Amino acid sequence: xxxxxxxxxxxxxxxxxxxxxxxxxxxxxxxLPDFIGYFIICVAIINIADINLRVREAFIGFRRAxxxxxxxxxxxxxxxxxxxxxxxxxSLLIFAFTFSFCELxxxxxxxxxxxxxxxxxxxxxxxxAVYYSKxxxxxxxxEKAFRFSVFFxxxxxxxxxxxxxxxxSLNDSYEFIKLLRVFSIIIVLPFGIAWLTKTIKYxxxxxxxxxxxxxxxxxxxxxxxxxxxxFTVRVLSVGLLMLxxxxxxxxDLYSEHLNILPDFIGYxxIVLAAIFLRDYSDKWIGVTVTSVIGAASSIAFQIFNDxxxxxxxxxxxxxxxxxxxxxxxxxxxRIAEAVIFLVVFGVTVSFLSDIFSVYTDLGxxxxxxxHKSLTKAFKKGSVTTFIIAILTAASGVFYGYAQPFxxxxxxxxxxxxxxxxxxxxxxxxxxxxxxxxxxxxxxRYSLYL
Length: 449
Fold this sequence. Notes:
Layout: H1 14-19, H2 34-49, H3 53-82, H4 85-125, H5 141-161, H6 177-208, H7 210-226, H8 228-248, E1 254-255, E2 258-259, H9 263-276, H10 284-311, H11 321-359, H12 368-402, H13 409-445
Antiparallel strand pairs: 1-2
């Protein structure tokens, strides 16, 4: 990420990615999450993506695959929480077919571009390994690896979906559908092991072609030395994306009175983002410290709120002294968590202000005419987002306040709806604010990239 080339131009990482991708799926559930494998591929090839357009296109494809794979788990949650039992069978078929189709449409071009990129790099930098063939005129190992990858993908995704089609016969769950799913796993597994073996051998062959690795490394290092601003923009863009994800995951999603998306997950990502961007502002320490405090408050609230919900009915709060004490302890922690959330966001805005002042046109003396409009844009974005952050924190407190009135349906239901709408508005505001900062950074360095 910082312009330092990964060992063996990333091919040492790829086998670890394939370990998460060779296993069959059980309907939508994947024992070894695919999104981890696709993420590792993105990390492994990001360096060579900088010097080869085809590999860059492959990187974009695998990045999309990460999102699709993550959405599978969202779909599993929605199936469990929002669909009736008699609706789940056909819905599962629709989800399984849709995700399998989308994955094939994204992954086949991604693998194609990846192996095409390796062949083009081999042509430019003397890569004998990527062109190796046992017999002249036959397909080389890169072409064979691509063809087998496509074959395995089709087998893997098709057999993950086929058992679900049995539900169409009676619009209900087939009696032996679990057995069919197991059979599909048994059929796919040998192909997965063969694909894993073949891809690992391919990576090993490329790693052992030392002249090729060295030539590609030298080319990359030359670009890194000639374009330091390129890596500045990349690091800032990735850091801003991490902050976007972190604050987006700080929203509240309730099921059975429990927040299924604990805030400490978002705080953890914000801490990683602050550490990642530590070279760009000294205020990263403040973001880190407040986020750690926020994570601790989130964990404390989760513990006490879980204790309240599991041990008492909400209707008992006004009748049972133990329920009363448990509720107000959790409510006090909810208020503290809301205040800390606002502190974290305020410190982060100050942190972003430092970055904005130095790494946009505000940091250039020859662009004074732009300074006023840029300052106005940052103030407008930060103030608007902070106001919505205040409303988001207040909506969470209001939901907690409304819990004792659970049986007054209109009162409690409106608190849930208000909280959900404001949380969604906060996500949009944060995304727009941080995207504005990223675009301003890119605009400054566009002449040098």
